[in-house]
Design goal:
about 260 residues; mainly alpha; about 0% strand
């Protein structure tokens, strides 16, 4: 018999706290210029912060499921924010980080195993699926707040560019996660509202949804259109192409630390 989560089931994992500590320390190094190689500080800051956002993404799914009726969530360790407890740590953490390193894109991860049979009501099922990408949306808003609040006075360029690149990752993750493709959260939002026949026909394709997205993004026209949309959203939030470009250049410190021109004004 499954019981409600205990206090130990909700205790924040030391693994997550360690990742958060790396985020804070590397962010401080990028802000103060403490690191000999600012690009390495940006790399650590963005990568660690990206993993933190992945943990929060999965936590949002789990927490919403808990309040919707799946009390088995606690025993699985999903409320501890420990990425090692996820059903597929490779998909949830390793692959998204590799895609950031290789292509500068926030690849959707997953997953936490939710016992959907315990949950009643289509709206609850949709909300559970939406909770994860909504976390990415919130993360993007927080990262871009200094830009759209015009509060960048005194913010070092290196840290500014790091925030911009991190925001780009969150926006790409939110867009991709909300695509109504089997296997992604966007499909999970609409799935409860589909007929049983449609869901039965679509189910075999769910394991390949992420691969399909990856393949489609390799098409140059699709890739350009996708990043044009991402750039437009970021510009609406006050983040320029200049900011994200230099953020990604700094992030790829192994290609050599660039000489960053000073911002005008």
């Amino acid at each position: 018999m499954t019981t409600a989560p205990t206090r130990s089931d909700r205790r924040v994992s030391p693994v997550f706290l360690g990742i958060a500590a790396v985020t804070a320390a590397s962010g401080w190094a990028a802000w103060t210029g403490f690191a000999d190689n600012p690009g390495f500080a940006v790399f650590l800051f963005v990568t660690a912060a990206w993993i933190v956002s992945l943990c929060l993404h999965e936590y949002a799914h789990a927490r919403t499921a808990l309040h919707s009726g799946d009390i088995s969530i606690g025993a699985k360790g999903y409320l501890t924010l420990n990425p090692l407890k996820y059903t597929h740590a490779l998909l949830s953490i390793v692959l998204p980080v590799l895609f950031v390193i290789m292509g500068g894109i926030g690849l959707p991860g997953g997953a936490v195993f939710i016992e959907r049979g315990r949950i009643q009501g289509r709206w609850r099922h949709s909300l559970i699926s939406a909770a994860g990408p909504l976390t990415n949306v919130l993360f993007a808003v927080v990262c871009t707040a200094p830009f759209w609040l015009d509060a960048l006075d005194g913010v070092p360029d290196t840290f500014r560019y790091a925030l911009a690149f991190l925001a780009l990752l969150q926006v790409t993750a939110a867009i991709l996660n909300f695509l109504p493709i089997p296997g992604l959260d966007g499909y999970g939002v609409i799935e409860p509202w589909l007929s049983h026949e449609i869901r039965r026909q679509v189910e075999p394709f769910a394991p390949f949804g992420l691969l399909a997205v990856f393949g489609i993004l390799w098409i140059p026209e699709v890739n350009h259109a996708f990043f044009d949309a991402v750039d437009a959203i970021l510009r609406g939030l006050g983040v320029s192409d200049w900011d994200t470009y230099w953020g990604q250049r700094l992030y790829r410190f192994w290609q050599g630390t660039p000489d960053i021109p000073a911002l005008n004004g």
